[in-house]
Amino acid sequence: MKVVIPAAGLGTRFLPATKSMPKEMLPVMGRPVIQYVVEEAVASGADDIIIVTGRGKRALEDHFDHNPELGAFNSQPALQSLEALSEKATIHFVRQRSALGLAHAVLCAEQHVGREAFGVLLGDSIYECDPPVLSQLRMAVDRWAPRGSAVALELVPEDRVHHYGIVGGQALGPGALRVERLVEKPKAEDAPSRYALTGAYWLSPRIFDCIRSTPAGRRNEVELTDALQKLADQEPVIGVVIDGRRYDTGTPLLWFETNLRFGLRDPEYRAALERVVAERGSAPTSSTERSK
Ligand code: UTP
Question: Is the C-beta atom of 226 inside 6 A of ligand 1?
């Protein structure tokens, strides 16, 4: 099973941290985000992973390569499990020559994917789902639309719909709908629902033709949401409200929040955080406050 992971974006919302470093390499609790994404793909059954990279993204390739210079450190459990991950799936890299949008990044993997259905996971989003998110999408396709496609959805509050691709359609059953309309970042009053695309997809290869015939929109980028509308006009696309959670790490605040959430599960990190919060509650917090 093939999974494409677009990771060639410029990460402009995370500058200057991402000026010379891929945002997909930012750590969450000591592991780079891209590693979580590859782990999720492998858990879903992927044995052939295509990471779409671009200029300044070499660190992504190096991360999944063996590093002989680390010598004995290579036997550390954390590095052993990374090595094991790289052996469970073959990881290929293709270049997106210009950051022309998510859909264009997916199109860069066309030759490698060929004419079979494939998964897409974003390089900056961590899923915690059981079953894994792509397995949930495949199950929905098997049930509702063999040979069709599926997109992962989450319900978002009305005042947040303008941040997402929003989907409307006919209910098929609990947590599943046949997608009829997709709108990228609509105003609340124009949104067909509060079901938002979360960035995980199971796509039929007909998506490539749809991407090719989709004109570029905002920022000269081809939106995957617009290409999916073309696909949904031609063949079944199922929307699946996923059982689980997605953590977007694409801005400093979202990344920080993800680290806090994951850190609070670890006794050592939790104790450190509680100490910092307690200190803040009991002591003056800045020189300005002290001088008052
Ligand atoms: P984002 O829109 O979150 O990434 O795309 P971005 O474009 O890097 O972010 P900003 O808006 O400039 O801050 C989600 C995923 O799609 C990849 C990104 O690398 C990210 O992992 N992507 C995005 C591409 O591979 N190519 C693109 O042209 C755009």
Answer: no
